[in-house]
Specification:
The protein is of the alpha+beta class and 110 residues long. It is built from 4 helices and 5 strands, in the order E-H-H-E-E-H-H-E-E. Helices cover 37% and strands 27% of the residues.
Length: 110
């Protein structure tokens, strides 16, 4: 199993942050289904202030290209992503259209 970590910011507005958290307490079933179908075994999102950290564990068949293609043709995923962008803001120095940025692992306790 492979693990990926991503970062993204929320707009620095306590009401929007609370609303974002509420949506994630009740993620739409179509989104959960889409995540699982793509080969993601576990997905966690953590929050401090307006910063988000997402940890994604995937099976051996997962690929970012496949996930991207599946998401692009799924209207419910597109609706969710559009809605979530109301709360999210890109990290500095991201490219147009980028949201979650893949983080580099710099330490592991063994």
């Amino acid at each position: 199993m492979k693990k990926y970590c991503f970062a993204l910011d929320l707009k620095n507005d306590s009401h929007l942050i609370d609303e974002y958290k509420t949506f994630h307490q009740n993620v739409w079933p179509e989104i959960i289904e889409s995540i699982k179908k793509s080969g993601i075994i576990n997905l966690e999102i953590y929050n401090v202030q307006n910063r988000l950290l997402m940890i994604m564990e995937v099976d051996e068949n997962f690929s970012f290209a496949k996930k991207s293609k599946l998401d692009a043709i799924n209207p419910k995923v597109q609706e969710w992503e559009t809605l979530m962008w109301k709360f999210q803001q890109a990290l500095p120095d991201t490219q147009p259209g980028e949201k979650w940025l893949l983080m580099d692992k710099i330490f592991e306790l063994k």
